């Protein structure tokens, strides 16, 4: 059903520069996307326009130039670095005599190759079906309307209408299954919230090094590679942070500028981990000359999924690719960490990241000493369970003097459990 092409296929790349800043794409990024899809680039056609051409997107003359290059290079597919309308795709295919794929279709194909889990595959299929639903007519132009006459009188439903109906039914079925998965995720989130376990979500531009950092922090074996969208399926791991305790770390799909809306909608359940996190670790490729634009692109997607209000900590990764750069923590005027510079691949600055996490997630710590009589020994064991005991001493009356250091919320919970009795044992 989908227009999947085999790896190694020869492609002509088309990149048009527009005067409007918001419509510009990056040619180098297109090359990386094509490489990630396993396609061989055998030619690049570039041009400049003030606005897209309604029929061919790139203009009549440029379309004929592309067709000539396709014929000369014996290419099998033309890939545009821009989103095309279904009509523009059909018109270009007629003149080029080969398949035409736009930026959205290329990203969808990469996602289809990368999906590993059941949920990931469902999300990709949903995005593909929504993208395909506007392009069905291309394969059935000879059956697009019911005609009279011998051999053309049928059940009253054209092949095109049948396909559209089947497509709608499949989309509904996938949405039902994804809804069940989302409910299961929600149960896990509620359980973590009841235990008050903070969640930290890794976000960032694709290929910024999120999975490498994730593996370094959690000692996991998550797939990491120097390619776009190496990670597609979300992974959750538990880590320990000083003065905080257990923290759930989530590795998510990388973002890209002008991320297709179909993908954002399909991955809504996965991105909920980002929207409901306590802190976002925004991983940035410090060696990328487009780092500033990439940060803006990530912020746009965060706003689209309503996660722009979540507190974030900037993590500048790939420090090893910069000259004379050292691992450090940048702080704001209040002394709060706002940026951490590190190299996940070389294991440099990871300790600084944990220090920053401890400060950003840590609660107000309470230090006090209590004198527990022998009859209240159970509270001593509770303090040990919370890993809050610094030292213990015993006096002549058999009381245990316990020096404690623990988060304010844990102390308040202990007070509530003891019905306020523990406050009577505090030594001034």
From TrEMBL:
InterPro entries: EFG_III/V, G_HFLX_dom, GTP-bd, GTP-bd_M, GTPase_HflX, GTPase_HflX_N, GTPase_HflX_N_sf, P-loop_NTPase. SUPFAM superfamilies: EF-G C-terminal domain-like, P-loop containing nucleoside triphosphate hydrolases. Mg(2+) binds at residues 211, 231. Its cofactor is Mg(2+). One of its GO terms (molecular function) is ribosome binding. It is found in: Cytoplasm. HAMAP family: GTPase_HflX (MF_00900). Monomer. Associates with the 50S ribosomal subunit. Belongs to the TRAFAC class OBG-HflX-like GTPase superfamily. HflX GTPase family. This is GTPase HflX.
